[in-house]
Amino acid sequence: MIATAFKRWQKVAKISKDRDIRIATVDAKGRVLIPMRIRRHLTHGATLYLTVGADRCIVMFTREQWEREVLARFQELSPFDPSPALKQYRRVMAHMVETTLDAMGRIVIPGNLLRYAGITRRAAFTFMGNWTEIWDPDTLDQETLNPTLAQQAADPEAKPA
Fold it and tell me: Quick one: pLDDT at residue 5?
């Protein structure tokens, strides 16, 4: 009954099936199975690029997305002209790693990126259109809550404004 109602609601609301959050388990070696909703757009052996996101998450790109969203955006920068864009590019490139999708649909996320995002046992994948974000599920919950609710969750004694 609930599943049927949900399917009907998806048609009415025109919810994209790619725009939901999927949770995956991270093993002791940093391997994580990419959820099928994201993996279906990838091929075995695909090179994926991981780096730090603007928030406490990991950003994952395919080769085409990496070239379009990162390399093309920063191609006009000069190393002799200090700017906020140059600092941002340096941060992205300093933490970038290439990983390959294995036959089982897994990637390896290096320890430094897992620590940056606060990911331990579980990773939340969110498809953002031109890239995918990988979060610690609790951090993602806090990030996506209403700011007032997030403040209340952080400080239950705080009074609403």
Answer: 44
Q: Report angle CA 100, 23, 29 to the nearest 5 degrees.
A: 45
Report if residue 46 sits inside a domain. Answer: yes
| CATH code at position 38 | 3.40.1550.20
pLDDT of residue 146: 56
Q: Which domain holds residue 112?
A: 17-142
8-41 pLDDT, tens digit per residue, is 444 443 434 444 789 999 999 999 999 998 888 8
E-strand stretches of the chain: 21-25, 31-33, 47-52, 58-62, 97-100, 106-108, 122-127, 132-135
- Per-residue pLDDT tens digits for 56-77: 999 999 999 999 988 888 888 8
Q: Residue 54, SS3?
A: coil
Instruction: Count CB-CB contacts under 10 A for residue 67.
Output: 14
Q: How many C-beta neighbours within 10 Å does residue 58 have? A: 24
pLDDT higher than threshold 80 for residue 88: yes
Does residue 156 lie within any of the structural domains? Answer: no
12 in a structural domain = no
161 found inside a domain: no
Q: Could you give the 3-state DSSP secondary structure of residue 155? A: coil
